[in-house]
Specification:
The longest helix has 20 residues, at 3-22. 40% of the residues lie in helices and 14% in strands. The chain has 24 helices and 20 strands.
Length: 634
């Protein structure tokens, strides 16, 4: 038996043993990919002693269910994943959960989550690398990005969004290895899919190589060719799922269930392994895979060639000085749409923070996200994603984890539906992506209910570890960004299309960092009105008219509901007087306000098509209507 074969079989049986012991998991893909992973390992430049080394190769497992392969490799390379950790596969509080999670398991580059996102993540790493090359030089950044994917990944629409973008950008640092085993959960892929993947990738400007995924020489040759190519590469590796299984090789039954003790024993016997032993790593196999020594050597050599100038740039990118940002100021009573104030804020941040970059899904003129004078990506800061919201957000997740940049993405708020899976992964993994979402309510007007976000605020406020800011005016917008830039979580800015009156001088804005604050207090108040965004002015006006009718009302502005619910009871009681009747008003669903409010005035429909002013009147978001409703409901 050759050493390469022994290495591959070691991976196979580690994966099979993991799934068998856990009685849960996916042995088929790891076993089918074991030969490819073994050869790829010899090409991969990583350092287990410093998993954040900037010039390391990135390896993304888009098929996150193939964790048996992932954890086997991490252990064999020398990352902080022990055999004991592997034995606890899929168990509560283990380092080896069912799908790889960034920040949880040492060596995992990103949480890929559901199929397809990992491909977009790999494109994001490759994009970040290209931008880093332009900033730091090709002699400083010259690594590759590898992505392992399967049939399921390529059936997901996001894969086309992302790879078409990669082909357009000619990302010669990207190598996608397609594990083509023609198997999904329900059986052979032919029952639902017969796409010519080779033709598809050639059409989007990829170099395509097709190989036997179990031929070590062919795998090595393809990787050598890919590394020298001047465009992104797809290696279509024809494999057998469950490769090495005694009787189940090639069967879809190996995909998502244990092989069984008898099948594993027979498979080990067939390969020359002891059938009575589990979780075995022969000494020569560990030595062949181990990267602890070579990783240190690679990083030391790289450090030696990085100039002082390049090192200074790296440090400036990694440690942005947010105190240097000269935020715009806005005159009280001026009418400024928060998408407009956001534009000025974005440009102020960009001017002070070298690594602040981003763009929109073909909506920059409407989202107001252009960074003026900053050029177009990858040579400049303005990224043109095209109409590809899901890929955009997943690409930005990876770019934010690259280690140098703070990246924002933008679209209309209603189109956040297209990128929700990536926003969820950002929240789960604590990825500090900034989302800019404009056209925030029925104020969109004539475009009608298909373009008017109704349930979206509630949806994202329900998402753990995700912070949605809907500022009432330009000065709240500035304060919201100041808070967001300091947070270790994704944030979203939901901005208006229509002009909003600037409520107060910046010095008078309350505790935005707490998510909500008492904007207007009246002694002896019996009513509190809560609101966010454009409805805050309506709340203030209504409070004034209520006072004329002998009803005193406090007004609470809620720029970030998610932060507000994190505050203690003492703070909540200080801004929402427990002795008042609480009303919340929002031109959206707004049901989450029942956590604080006795009555919520929100949307019960999807809106309508018409001028914005007419719609606010139609749905009861006018001064006269709100005052009358509050009077009736006290």
């Amino acid at each position: 038996m050759s050493l390469l074969q022994k290495q591959a079989d070691t991976i196979r049986f580690l994966a099979a043993d993991m799934v068998q012991q856990a009685n849960s998991g996916h042995p088929g893909a790891p076993m089918g990919l074991a030969d490819i992973a073994t050869v790829l390992s010899s090409h991969l430049n990583v350092n287990p002693n410093n998993s954040s080394w900037l010039n390391r190769d990135r390896l993304v497992f888009s098929g996150g269910h193939a964790t048996g392969l992932v954890y086997s490799l991490l252990h064999l390379w020398g990352f902080d994943v022990s055999i004991e950790d592997i034995k606890k596969f899929r168990q509560t509080h283990s380092k080896t959960p069912g799908h790889p999670e960034y920040g949880h398991t040492h060596g995992i580059e990103i949480t890929t989550g559901p199929l397809g996102q990992g491909i977009a993540n790999a494109v994001g790493f490759a994009w970040a690398s290209k931008y880093a090359q332009n900033v730091l030089g090709n002699d400083v950044i010259d690594h590759k990005v590898y992505c392992l994917c399967g049939d399921g990944d390529l059936q997901e629409g996001i894969s086309y969004e992302a790879t078409a973008t990669a082909g357009h950008q000619k990302l010669d640092n990207l190598v996608i290895i397609y594990d083509s085993n023609n198997i999904t959960i329900e059986g052979d892929t032919s029952i639902a899919w017969d796409e010519d993947v080779v033709a598809r990738f050639k059409a989007i400007n990829f170099e395509v190589l097709e190989i036997d995924g179990h031929d070590f020489d062919a795998i090595n040759g393809a990787l050598e060719t890919a590394k020298a190519c001047d465009k992104p590469v797809l290696i279509k590796a024809n494999t057998a799922i469950g490769k090495g299984a005694a009787t189940m090789e090639g069967s879809h039954h190996t995909h998502g269930a244990p092989l069984g003790a008898d099948e594993i024993a027979a498979s080990k016997t067939k390969a020359g392994f002891n059938p009575e032993e589990s979780f075995v790593v022969p000494t020569e196999v560990k030595e062949a895979f181990d990267k602890t020594v070579s990783g240190n050597e690679l990083e030391s050599a790289w450090n030696a060639k990085v100039s002082d100038e390049a090192q200074a740039k790296i440090e400036a990118l990694q440690n942005p000085n947010f105190d240097a940002i000269e935020y715009p100021e806005f005159e009280a009573d001026a009418s400024v749409a928060t998408r407009e104030s956001n534009h000025k804020i974005l440009n102020a941040i960009s001017a002070a923070v070298p690594g602040f970059i981003g763009g929109s899904a073909d909506l920059a003129p409407s989202n107001k996200t252009e960074l003026k004078g900053a050029g177009d990506f990858p040579n400049g800061k303005n990224i043109h994603f095209g109409i590809k919201e899901h890929a955009m957000a997943s690409i930005c997740n990876a770019m934010n984890l690259y280690g140098l940049f703070k990246v924002f993405s933008a679209t209309f708020f209603v189109f956040s539906d297209y990128l929700k899976p990536a926003a969820r992964i950002a929240a789960l993994a604590g990825i500090k992506q900034h989302f800019v979402w404009t056209h925030d309510s029925i104020g969109v007007g004539e475009d009608g209910p298909t373009h008017q976000p109704i349930e979206h605020l509630s949806q994202f406020r329900a998402l753990p570890n995700f912070y949605t800011f809907r500022p009432a005016d330009a000065t709240e917008n500035v304060a919201s960004w100041k808070k967001a830039l300091t947070m270790d979580a994704p944030t979203a800015f939901v901005c208006s299309r229509q002009g909003l009156r600037v409520l107060k001088d910046a010095k008078e804005i309350g505790d935005v960092e707490n998510g909500g604050y008492l904007l207007k207090k009246r002694e002896g108040a019996t009513v509190t009105i809560m609101a966010s965004g454009s409805e805050v002015m309506l709340a203030l006006q209504s409070a004034c008219h209520l006072e004329e009718a002998g009803i005193k009302a406090n007004v609470v502005s809620v720029p970030c509901y998610d932060l507000l619910v994190e505050q203690d009871k003492a703070y909540i009681d200080s801004i929402i007087d427990p002795n008042t009747k609480v009303f919340a008003v929002e031109a959206a669903r707004g049901l989450e306000y029942y956590r604080f409010a006795d009555v919520v005035y929100g949307m019960d429909s999807f809106g309508a098509s018409g001028p914005a002013g007419d719609l606010f009147k139609e749905f009861g978001f006018t001064l006269d209507a709100l005052v009358e409703r509050i009077k009736n409901d006290i």
